[in-house]
Amino acid sequence: MTPAEPSDVEQPSPAPELTRTLAADPLAEPVERVTRGWTYALAGANGAIWVGWYGPLQILLASQSEDFAPGTGMTKETLLAWVAGAGAVVSLFANPLFGALSDRTTARWGRRTPWIVAGAGGGAVSLLLLSGASGPWTMAAGWCLVQLTLNAAFAAVTAAVPDRVPRLQRGSVGGRLGAVQILGVVVGTGLATAAGGVKAGYEACAVCVVVGVLPYVLKYPDLRLPAAARPAWSWRGFLAGFWLSPRRHPDFGWAWLTRFLMNLSNALVLLYLLYYLRDRLHYGDPEQGVLILTAVNGVALLATVVVGGVWSDRTGRRKPFVVWSGVVMAAATALLAAWQSWPGTIVAAAVIGVGFGVFTSVDFALMTDVLPTAVDRGKDLGVINVANALPQVAAPALAAPLVTYLGGYRVLFLVAAAIGLAGAALVGRIRAVD
Predict the structure, then answer these.
(1) Which of 57, 163, 200, 239 has its CA 20 to 30 A from that of 4?
(2) Which of 186, 188, 249, 143 lies closest to 52, judged by CA?
(3) Is 21 in a helix, a strand, or coil?
């Protein structure tokens, strides 16, 4: 972006009496471009949440599973799959639930900010509790609590984008959120690796979660929903609202399925990465290997995530970017099956990062473009985010038998590539977006 673009010009901060709420209609389609400062503050909050997720997922939960598996009758792979799956089940329900609650929040601090604060604070406490887990049951309970609380914050952060960002700026904003997201993965993995132990790793991630959300919640006001505009409440209507008929909203349905398949493919590759390096490649320091691969993937992603989003905004098109990014990721995943070596894994990590960078920014913009109603943005994005969480449930159930009984890591990577390719193909079924 050139300096002359409006999004790059920092606007004056609101007057002190307006620092906590804005008078703009929270249900109107946004038309005023957001500033770079707002974008990076929101991205920082998003990245902090991903630190809280991926420090555990990449390193800490795997280490705890290895410690706790003896005596349980389970292998470390099975225990990790069980714990990760249990947390993902919680995430399935938590994200749309907290999105719907934020849609209906009329607090003085706005619709989304209270949930960002509560979710991040609760997530930090949950990570500290998880650090003291004494066995598989307390580990599973702690991880489920982390998923519950951090999903409250994530649902609110995600919903802030369609609340505030005009359609033709969402690709570039999504790109910046995606860039900081992968930085969150790298930072979480780095903290977990360098902190000097499982307990210290969790503590470092907890501090990062809290510190990361502060710039956004302290500096930038949220849109306040007047009580008169809050949707009418009934348990039946509230629960029924979580079902969005693919027949009535086909574009929403196809977009959801595309994201689910892409994320399932990615989850199948990531779930056993530590064990793949240790048991298949016999890499000397597998934890450091995971950090190196995460960094390589992150650098490649950063090279394309913002560029892809800005390019999509300028052309006004979304689908071609999603299709080709999916094809690139599928090809790189298939490469893992064909070239099972440390150099091959590094190349695959880099190529997956290139494709996933474009996918992260443009797919996010595409999703916000197919939301059915303004009043339910948080809930509908929560339903879409189920496509991020459900693969964490499906991946362990699919990966464990593939690795253990049906051909090992080569078959796992081939299945992951086929699933990602199917997701890329289904983008063409979306009609309302070019």
Answers:
(1) 163
(2) 188
(3) strand
Radius of gyration of the chain (CA): 21
Q: What percent helix, strand, coil does the chain show, rounded to 5?
A: 75, 0, 25
Q: Which residues contact residue 70 at a Cβ distance below 8 angstroms, ignoring those fewer than 6 apart?
A: none
Measure CA 318 to chain center. 19
Residues 123, 209 contacting (CB under 8 angstroms): yes
Secondary structure class of 22 (helix, strand, coil): strand
The long-range contacts involving 130-135, CB below 8 angstroms and separated by at least 24 positions, are: 130/56, 130/202, 131/198, 131/199, 131/201, 131/202, 131/203, 132/199, 133/64, 133/68, 135/68
Burial of 307 (0-12, 13-18, 19+ CB in 10 A): middle
The two structure tokens encoding residue 340: 């099972």
DSSP string, 262-315: HHHHHHHHHHTHHHIIIIIS--S-HHHHHHHHHHHHHHHHHHHHHHHHHHHHHH
Between helix 76-103 and helix 250-271 the angle, nearest 10°, is 150
Place of tokens 């991040």: 120
Residue 243: its pLDDT value, please? 62
How many residues are recorded in the chain?
434
Q: Alpha carbon of 204 to those of 83, 131, 198, 276, 306: distances in Å?
A: 21, 11, 10, 26, 28
Residue 272's CB is within 10 A of a number of other CB atoms, namely 25
Q: Cβ distance 211 to 44 under 8 Å?
A: no
Instruction: Please report the pLDDT score of residue 27 as a whole number.
Output: 65
**pTM for the whole thing?**
0.74
Cβ proximity of 378 and 103 under 8 Å = yes
Residues 365 and 320: their CA atoms lie apart, in Å, by 13
As a whole number of angstroms, the distance between CA 210 and CA 98 comes to: 19
The per-residue pLDDT for range 116-131, each reduced to its tens digit, is 999 999 999 999 999 9
Which tens digit of pLDDT belongs to each residue from 361-414? 787 778 777 777 666 777 777 787 777 777 877 787 788 788 777 878 888 889
Q: Quote the mean pLDDT of the chain.
A: 82
